[in-house]
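The data are quoted verbatim here:
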Amino acid sequence: MARTKEFDPEAALQSALELFWRRGYEATSVTDLVEHLGIGRASLYATFGSKHELYLKAMDRYAEMRDPILLAELSQPGPTLPAVRAVVRRFAAEAASPQGRQNGCFVTNTAAELAPHDPAAARRVEISWEHLETPLHSALVRAQAQGELPEDRDPRALARMLLVLMQGIRIVGKASNDPARVRDAAEQALALLD
């Protein structure tokens, strides 16, 4: 007879996400995961596979948490540029917050730590960036159609510029003691939308 799990796999995955987010992949050992999740090593492997598989599942969970919020913010009816500005400003505020300074962005952290040599992590980073760029692009196309964005602006190029800015904001916000640095950068980029 199979034993029933004595822990909640969803709660354990969320806990692993938080640990990986705070410490990174390399700095988190299997022993750290076992202690943090409060489960046995065998249970960890049986439920999630390897440390690497658990990390990828944590990345997927992070995307599940973040992507719908962004899509909802950028697909509201009515004027579009205020929503784009609000998203960029929220990224800047989060980057400068105490939690942002401590953890940064899980995707940006992964891009810097693993993407150069880990194809599975790199693929998830690319997917995450597409899930940011695509709604930004759609919102900017709508803004242009509604007369909010000048006709001579390229919505795709602007969406990509905002994506790169927002990811850069996450890195600078994590490393800088000066919150004005990310706020000023965000405002300068948003001025390009006028």
Q: What stands out?
A: The chain has a mean pLDDT of 91.
